[in-house]
Amino acid sequence: MIVCILTALFACGGSETVSLPADPPPRPEPEFVGTHEGIQHPPIPADSPAWRHDPGGFVPNVRFYGERSWDDVRMRLAGHIGVIERDRARLAAAAGAFERGAAIYRALAADMDDMAAAATGPATKIPKLIAKAARRDAAVLDKLTVLPKATAHADGSVIDISDFKDFDDRHLLRVALWSAYLESADPVRVDSPWGYFDPQRPKSSPAVFEVEGLGGMPTGDTLIDVAGEPGPRAIGRLAKLGLDDPKHKQWVEDTVYVLNQRLAESPGSIVSLLKSRVDQLNSFAHGSRYYNIKQMRNEGVRVLARGGHFRLARQILAMNFPLHHQDWECPNREGILVAIDARLGMLHGDPKAEARLIEARAITDVFLAKTLK
């Protein structure tokens, strides 16, 4: 979420000719970048005093995370847990450990039941959907004795992932997308796309760099726009270095051309090339360059993963560390990145992939506990 707390500091001065004591300085009042009605494209200023401050971790203010209640934040965390534990179950099932995979699904269902019971209103819906699907898939694994053949799932849902006007619409869309995804989710294999889960685009996106992918806006929850967690499209428009800036758009188009050329001829060189482009963006001083850089790295992960270059995709993903500044505005940013790294490890055959998933869940649980205090 493109949300930030701005602190305005006021200085008061006295006069040598005035004997009365000066008034105390006014208390800083929190302000917020953009708008907070969940609209699609709130304006993102080029800079903000708040972006010069790095909180370094959890901030006990729900609006810092772009939500109206902690229940809404926990709804997003339920989605993270659903992705992580579903991957754990599928990793076990793909190795033929059907009983263990079923047990992971059942534990996920129980965790989601607890989260739903503790929430109110629309925030209960996603945990309930995940719990129901987890029990269904546990029952599927209970019946398996051999690994089934992969099956393609065609989703006939008509859902526009950009169709929302405010917070309420955005949350309803999130629920509808989770429902559509879970209806046909594969209990054994990773079937989430690299990029958005978009029911109107059932075919996989091409493994090429695109201008919007490289120069558009990223989401807060990177699991959504990189690793296929069901969720709405990103919000916000950049006042500086947006694709409506002809000079910057030309730079993005040139970068896309070079990256695609390298992808065809020498994929291993993409990591250093993309890093050099990130360094160019980082040479600017304004704070919103963070979103340009984040989107560029996200596109690197998406495209390389679609092309089966999982090891290279992990190298791009690792560029997001250490976390800093606007990273903290996303609930569970660290857990999200570790979960994506684990997914890439699964597909790359990394024997430490399950340990990485367990780490992602532990990080998520720590963040969740802080929202309950």
Give an overview of the whole structure.
The two termini are 22 Å apart. A two-stranded antiparallel ribbon has the order 1-2. Strands 3-4 form a two-stranded parallel ribbon. With 373 residues, the chain is mainly alpha-helical. Helix content is 50%, strand content 3%.
TL;DR of this structure?
The protein has 12 helices and 4 strands. It is mostly helical.
For the structure shown, list the relevant keywords.
12 helices; globular; mainly alpha; two-stranded parallel sheet; 373 residues; disordered N terminus; single chain
Strand percentage, roughly? under 5%
Q: In whole angstroms, how far apart are the ends?
A: 22 Å
The low-confidence parts are 1-37
Q: What is the global morphology?
A: globular
What is the β-strand count?
4
Biggest sheet, in brief? 2 strands, antiparallel
Instruction: Provide the residue-averaged pLDDT.
Output: 89
- Secondary-structure-based class equals mainly alpha
Number of helices: 12
Helix share bin: 40-55%
Taking all Cα atoms into account, the compactness measure Rg is 22 Å
List the helices and strands and how they pair.
Blueprint: E1 5-7, E2 30-32, E3 43-44, H1 70-94, H2 98-118, H3 125-142, H4 167-183, H5 211-215, H6 222-227, E4 237-238, H7 246-265, H8 270-282, H9 289-306, H10 310-318, H11 333-348, H12 353-371
Parallel strand pairs: 3-4
Antiparallel strand pairs: 1-2
Helix pairs in contact: 1-2, 1-3, 1-11, 1-12, 2-3, 3-4, 7-8, 8-9, 8-10, 9-10, 10-11, 11-12
